[in-house]
Amino acid sequence: MKTIGVLGLGIIGGVWARHYAAAGVLAGAWNRTAQPDFPKWTATPLAVAQAADIVQLVVADPPAVRALLAQILPALGPGKTVVQSSTIDPKSSEEFCATVTGLGASYLEAPFTGSKAAAEQKQVVYYVGGDAATVADMEATLALVSVARLTIGDHRQAATLKLAMNLNIAAQMEALSEAITLARRAGISDDTFFGALARNASQSGLAKLKEPKLRSGDFSPQFSVKHMLKDMRLAAGIDGCEDFPVLDTMRDRLAQAERAGLGDQDFSVLIQLLGSDRAKQG
């Protein structure tokens, strides 16, 4: 089994790194905010890349990926693989792939779907994009932290699909927020609403995941407003997406939530923009 280093120990990256450590393959871990007590903590991104066969990037956005690649370039070459698991746009993916493969290393675009709870249970799903040999070479390692690896196509297509999935999720969250607010204002209880939803064609995995948050008003982050807003902005920048009305709406709604100081909250907090009055429930 190849060794792996993780750069970015946030909500998901930290969970994965601990899984790799438990499997005995973690060569190094680094985060912008120091975590010296973390398993295999390493002082610099370069030192992680030097120690590991595979370097997995799990950071916020394309500028963060670009900055990390600049730091680890001296360690990249034949025999090394960069697995890029941050949510980025296809243009940035093309840039990063060219940078890495130009040094003789391999590059795999591997964004994912799944919350912190899914990561803890090794239930995330990767959308992998790259050449067939690299996809096959990374299968055993990524299987340590995920339930499935879906081969999407090339690196650009994998990055695009992740943004497409997030657009769908964001739109569902807004619709669910508006639907339950409509019901609450009519005096319909949450028990009745979710009982009816369970027998409706619109029931979804997202609705099941966010039901506890909508019921309790606990918007601690599984996927933050600021990160979903970043993703909608990236999607809006893709050629051909200029006239997508739902995408434009979700970008505006998330920006409104961020301006309201909700950027670090789970994106289900969008319901608060509707002024939902839970006291009106029957």
Overview of this structure, please?
The chain has 282 residues and is α/β, with parallel strands linked by helices. It is built from eleven helices and eight strands. The strands form two sheets. Strands 2-1-3-4-5 form a five-stranded parallel sheet, sandwiched between helices. It has a three-stranded mixed sheet with strand order 6-7-8. The longest helix has 31 residues, at 155-185. It is globular, with a radius of gyration of 20 Å. The model has no long low-confidence stretch (mean pLDDT 96).
Cα Rg: 20 Å
Which structural class matches the secondary elements? Answer: alpha/beta
What is the end-to-end distance? 57 Å
- How large is the count of helical segments? 11
Largest sheet: 5 strands, parallel
Ranges with pLDDT <50 over ≥5 residues?
none
Averaging pLDDT over every residue, what do you get? 96
Helix content percent band: 40-55%
| General form | globular
Count every beta strand, where a strand is a DSSP E run of 2 or more residues. 8
* Helix and strand run: EHEHEHEHEEHEHEHHHHH
Largest sheet, spatial ordering of strands: 2-1-3-4-5
Beta-strand level of the residues, as a percent range? 5-15%
Strand and helix layout:
Elements: E1 4-7, H1 13-23, E2 26-30, H2 45-51, E3 54-57, H3 62-72, E4 81-84, H4 90-101, E5 106-109, E6 112-113, H5 116-120, E7 124-129, H6 132-142, E8 146-153, H7 155-185, H8 190-197, H9 205-216, H10 225-236, H11 245-259
